[in-house]
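ok new one. same drill as before - structure tokens go in, u give me an amino acid for every spot. 131 of them this time. try not to just spam alanines like last time pls lmao
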């Protein structure tokens, strides 16, 4: 049996391989993982996770992918996931490597609306007709 610290390190590495299905960046890079703990006696991984929004349509997919990744570890038989909303997710939770990856060409370009042309700030001048 492995010690708890080495199992936790493996769990974090496994989580780095789980990507958010909407934005192909790891759940670790996105800052969705709040905490990870391993309980050796129960062979249980305990996670606290958050989401970018309460109505995130990918919640179930992400949790299923997390469970699958962590249950692949030989020392894990049970995965408990608690969704927490404190601390609230903000872009400050994004890791630097995730920020870089999100800026790669084609990474988010299809998800973001095209930039809109800004109207000129020049006042509109209407010609005055002589009477």
């Amino acid at each position: 049996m492995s010690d708890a610290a080495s199992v936790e390190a493996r769990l974090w590495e496994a989580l780095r391989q789980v990507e958010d299905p909407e934005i192909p960046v790891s759940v670790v890079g996105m800052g969705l993982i709040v905490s990870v703990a391993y309980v050796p006696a129960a062979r249980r991984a305990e996670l606290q996770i958050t989401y970018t929004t309460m109505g995130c349509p990918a919640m179930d997919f992400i949790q299923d992918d997390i469970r699958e990744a962590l249950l692949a570890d030989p020392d894990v038989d049970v995965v408990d996931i608690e969704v927490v909303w404190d601390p609230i997710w903000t872009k400050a939770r994004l890791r630097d490597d995730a920020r870089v990856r999100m800026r790669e060409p084609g990474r988010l370009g299809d998800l973001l609306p095209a930039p809109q042309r800004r109207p000129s700030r020049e006042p509109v001048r209407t010609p005055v007709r002589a009477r």
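The domain at 4-101 is CATH 3.30.300.130 (GMP Synthetase; Chain A, domain 3). and btw The radius of gyration is 22 Å.
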